[in-house]
Design a protein that fits this description.
By secondary structure, the protein is α/β, with parallel strands linked by helices. It is built from 19 helices and 13 strands. Helix 6 links the parallel strand 4 and strand 5. The radius of gyration is 21 Å and the shape is globular. About 2% of the residues have low confidence.
Length: 386
């Protein structure tokens, strides 16, 4: 196997990354993969909160993880691998500008996959950035780069991969591409995992699944003083909800752990509740009910046409950002929202199939189907364009 892809990441690469992005499919199509974790160099602010072990690529044939700790190591990596084809899963902004500077300097061919997530979208919650944060030096510098200086560091990809019609124009804009850029129309990586997953069995016992976004300890949230919550109160309140839901639906609640979660922290805070790792799609497929806040994994419940209850406990209600994110999901997909544990007893849990179908069509895939074909189509573009 002498053909190689380089996948660039600016957030820490964990074990779950391989499954989330279906990286095993790359080797099945004749390529080996180098995953570059540039987060220690690019985002040291996130790495200092890192508790979880990074991916052990020795466990996987055809996959190598390379971690760079500073700009010198980053420069050397790009220089040594400039003849390979690169994949970015982010676009050019203030955090990633040096990556794009190197791509441009070494004239590296690359494709951009930032348009195949199942996220609601970065501009879906208006006013979520406080005035204090908008006026902070870091935010102002980022805004200046994104609005003005980014165009001088522009280096468009060979192709854009998008998972829906809605994302095409947005991705052209944020990646500063011309109208004639090649577009690869795929489905989201969540849909790929949905197609590949078998329902979680749980020994034949019915269960509800909570999609844990790891709010009290998530690195992206811990560094933001405006979004900090009391972890003890949060977990106490959530377990009160779980008790009421278990009684109302006569089934246990299983926690689908966030990929960045530290297992020791999860065990300590969730107590006797079962926490399952790296099986979110399987858990959603087998559940009778899905519990969430605003996790992107909620998209899996939509693909499975499962009823969803959005829990907004007192700690989340206290932070306007969290409440608004939860409310956005409720409004968009007609989910049920509960603000008190006792509210679950009076819920008429059903689904809005039309809203689910519209979400799938607009944000997940161009058409519903049962054929995983994610990386094969990417590789066809790489080979067809070279």
């Amino acid at each position: 196997m002498n053909k190689e892809l380089v996948i660039l990441q600016v957030t820490p690469v964990f074990e779950t990354f391989v499954k989330k992005w279906c990286i095993d499919e790359i080797s099945e199509n004749g390529y080996s993969t180098i995953i570059l974790d540039a987060s220690p160099a690019i985002r040291p602010d996130l790495n200092k909160y890192l508790k979880q072990e990074r991916l052990n690529s020795d466990k996987y044939e055809g996959i190598e993880l390379v971690v760079v700790n500073d700009y010198k190591e980053l420069d050397d990596f790009f220089k040594e691998n400039s003849e390979k084809f690169f994949i970015t899963m982010f676009y050019n902004d203030n955090h990633t500008k040096y990556i794009y500077y190197l791509l441009k300097s070494f004239k590296i061919q690359y494709g951009n996959l930032s348009g195949i997530s199942s996220e609601l979208g970065i501009d879906d919650v208006e006013g979520e950035i406080s005035l204090k944060k908008r006026l902070s030096p870091g935010h102002l510098v980022g805004a200046l780069y994104n609005r003005f200086f980014r165009k001088f560091n522009n280096y468009p990809p060979q192709f854009l991969a998008v998972s829906s019609k809605q994302k095409e124009e947005f991705q052209k804009k944020v990646n500063m591409c011309s109208d004639d850029v090649r577009i690869v129309r795929l489905h989201s990586y969540d849909y790929e995992n949905f197609l590949r997953a078998e329902p979680y069995k749980n020994d034949g016992k019915p269960y509800c699944v909570f999609l844990d976004p790891y709010i009290p300890f998530h690195p992206d949230l811990v560094i933001d003083a405006d979004r900090k919550i009391d972890s003890k109160k949060y977990y106490f309140e959530m377990k009160e909800y779980f008790k009421c839901i278990s009684n109302a639906y006569n089934c246990e609640v299983i926690v689908a752990s966030h990929p960045r979660a530290d297992e020791s922290i999860q065990k300590r805070n969730w107590g006797d509740y079962k926490v399952v790792y790296s099986k979110t799609a399987e858990l959603v497929k087998g559940a009778v009910l899905v519990l969430s806040h605003f996790s992107n994994s909620t998209a899996l419940a939509v693909m499975s046409y499962k009823p969803v209850v959005v829990i907004v406990n007192d700690e989340l209600q206290r932070v306007d950002y969290f409440y608004r994110r939860c409310k956005k999901y409720v409004d968009l997909l007609s989910f049920k929202m509960v603000l008190k544990p006792e509210d679950v007893r009076e819920l008429n849990v059903d689904i809005n199939r039309a809203a689910y179908k519209q979400f799938i069509d607009e944000r997940i895939t161009y058409e519903e189907h049962d054929n995983p074909c994610f990386w094969r189509k990417i590789i066809d573009q790489i080979e067809g364009g070279n």
